[in-house]
Design goal:
259 residues, alpha/beta, globular, binds 2-phosphoglycolic acid
């Protein structure tokens, strides 16, 4: 596999300044200076500054959301420009918790994706179906509609500057992980659909799996040909659990590089 896996920790609405300080110092101790995979963490807005100032160099920092606007009378929102100004590298867009709880539409998510790129942030487009949608065989249609909204707005070449995270909603925070085969099936679908538009971009874009990924199942998931790492929620909240997943990415890369 030529793509470098990303292990991304989505801290959601967890943590405190003390948590951030401890986590960053633990990761600084536990993470080797040179790693053959990428690592990112996504704290809440008000902890971004602390993460950026205390993180080990090899860890990227991202926000969990951004506004679809540049600036202006949009109380309570934070723009891509502000995140870039602060020193963020990445930003999640369209996490299912935002699609459901904040009713973000595919069109809004697409605008956010475009805003991230405009300010030099790497957007991580989260896509995935609910249990009802899976049970009624709509998985591919739902996931593709979520991606298609971004494609229609900015085109395939621009989409390629981001990352896609496939997160089946039924697997998020439930302890129920998609099997490696289920994950691969959707990842392969996404990559082949993209390849029909741009083969090079489809080969290069990184597709992460998210949904109850942990140290014990990470290797199997990451070994799938179209799975390029994970977006990790619960298991990113302790350095040991997060590092256990990072070690699986390292193991996979070591095996790939020596074969
Ligand atoms: P989980 O969350 O690992 O706790 O299932 C994943 C996510 O929502 O990004």
């Amino acid at each position: 596999m030529s793509r470098t896996p990303i292990i991304a920790g989505n801290w959601k609405m967890h943590g405190s300044l003390t948590f951030v300080k401890e986590m960053m110092s633990e990761l600084a101790t536990m993470l080797p200076a040179k790693i053959n995979y990428d690592v990112a963490v996504f704290p809440v807005y008000i902890h971004l500054h602390e993460v950026i100032n205390t993180k080990p160099e090899q860890v990227w920092c991202g926000a969990q959301n951004l506004s679809e606007y540049d600036d202006g009378a949009v109380t309570g929102e934070v723009s891509g420009k502000m995140l870039a100004d602060l020193g963020c590298d990445m930003v999640l867009v369209g996490h299912s918790e935002r699609r459901v709880k904040s009713r973000e539409s595919n069109a809004e998510v697409a605008k956010k994706f475009a805003q991230a790129l405009k300010y030099g942030l790497t957007p991580v487009l989260c896509v995935g179906e609910s249990l009802v949608e899976r049970q009624s065989n709509q998985t591919f249609a739902v996931v593709w509609a979520q991606i298609q909204a971004v494609l229609s707005l900015i085109g395939v070449e621009q989409l390629g500057h981001g990352v896609i995270a496939y997160e089946p909603v039924w697997a998020i925070g439930t302890g129920e992980t998609a099997t490696a085969e289920q994950a691969q099936e959707v990842h392969q679908f996404i990559r082949s659909q993209l390849a029909a538009k741009d083969v090079t971009m489809a080969r290069q874009i990184r597709l992460l799996y998210g949904g109850s990924c942990k140290g014990s199942n990470a290797f199997e998931l990451f070994s799938m040909p179209d799975v390029d790492g994970g977006l990790i929620g619960g298991a990113s909240l302790t350095a040991e659990d997060f590092m256990a997943i990072c070690r699986e990415a390292k193991k996979l890369m070591n095996e790939t590089q020596s074969s």
